[in-house]
Amino acid sequence: SNAPIRVAVTGAAGAIGYSLLFRIGTGELFGPNQPVILHLIDIEPALPALQGVTMELDDCAYPLLKGIVATANLDEGFKGVNWALLVGSVSRKAGMERKDLLGINGKIFTGQGQAIQKNAASGVRILVVGNPCNTNCLIAMNNAPEVPRERWYAMTRLDENRARLQLSRKAGVDITAVSNVAVWGNHSATQYPDFYNARINSKPVTDVIQDETWLKNEFIPTVQQRGTAVIKARGAGSAASAANAIIDSVHSIVRPTPAGDWHSLCVCSDGSYGIEKGIICGFPVRSNGSKTEIVQGLSINEFSKRGLMPRSMS
Ligand code: NAX
């Protein structure tokens, strides 16, 4: 029988955790034949709630879930983990400056990076979701210099999925007809969902949707503001769709990318497309099932060039 994969999830008592953990339990992350052990990490005050989540996971009697570690201790939480999904963070509240947030999360992700390096399994891979996810990922990565840089990711997949939806609706095609959507830069309101290189039924989007005014002035802001629109409508942030995007992101890393396509992920820049080496930035990424690479050679026009560079930290 397979050895279980150990998956750490931080912020496990939160809203995204409440969608994500139960899908991991059913085997959606690594398939129906792969046992998992969940390492649920949250802060001390959230431990009672985390206990409740643990009880519910237990009560699902998932055949693939071979164990649960629930803790506020980072050494225990990251011990032997093969994957670390860093979901928990402190998001900006009214009256909080960006630099306050950076100070708080700087401390959190410094400690988590160090604990991952010290405790995780040697092949550990890390996906940062908690915002500002690019910056948080960079901080954790820089505090875990022995964990190779190609194992660090931050999430732009929800933005990719949102972009695919908007393009499919506008073109009147099935969601599966939209491919090759790259979200460049930060996961934030300054992200650049690149429609020039995206395809609908294998044709350039601009051949199918012959309305660049809509693409530039409606599509881009709709994708950039989608998270805010969900908060307005629901009174709470995107949680189930974020959990879904986490699962999609991991699949895109551990499964070979279909020929000719790519997915959006933030990875450590190697200087591709003139983006500063060493920062964590959204790129089009392909995987062969074990290694990911930044897709090279896409044409970047003047409009795209302006969208490409990360400009803000959330
Ligand atoms: P919640 O506020 O529901 O849950 C956050 C959880 O994190 C809480 O249980 C809290 O106790 C825990 N936490 C706080 N500090 C922690 C620490 N130092 N160590 C471990 N746990 C800690 O937020 P939720 O809706 O689950 O969202 C979590 C994060 O995802 C937020 O930062 C949010 O901004 C971010 N998102 C990122 C997205 C992306 O596409 N990259 C999209 C969805 C979401 O907005």
Structure overview:
With 314 residues, this protein is α/β, with parallel strands linked by helices. It has helices at residues 15-26, 47-59, 74-77, 98-119, 133-142, 157-171, 205-208, 212-224, 226-234, 240-254, 302-308; strands at 5-10, 36-41, 65-71, 83-86, 125-128, 152-154, 178-179, 182-184, 192-194, 199-200, 203-204, 263-268, 280-287, 292-294. Strands 3-2-1-4-5-6 form a six-stranded parallel beta sheet. Strands 7-10-11 form a three-stranded antiparallel beta sheet. The N and C termini lie far apart (43 Å). The model has no long low-confidence stretch (mean pLDDT 94). Bound molecules: ligand NAX. Ligand NAX binds at residues 10-11, 13-17, 41-43, 46, 87-91, 108, 129-131, 133, 155, 158, 187, 227, 237-239, 242.
Helix content: 25-40%
Count of distinct strands: 14
Biggest pleated sheet: 6 strands, parallel
- Please mark out the parts with pLDDT under 50 across 5 or more consecutive residues, or reply none: none
Span between termini: 43 Å
Quick gist of this model?
This protein is 39% helix and 19% strand.
Please give a handful of descriptors for the protein shown:
single chain, 314 residues, alpha/beta, 6-stranded parallel beta sheet, 3-stranded antiparallel beta sheet, 11 helices, 14 strands, globular, binds ligand NAX
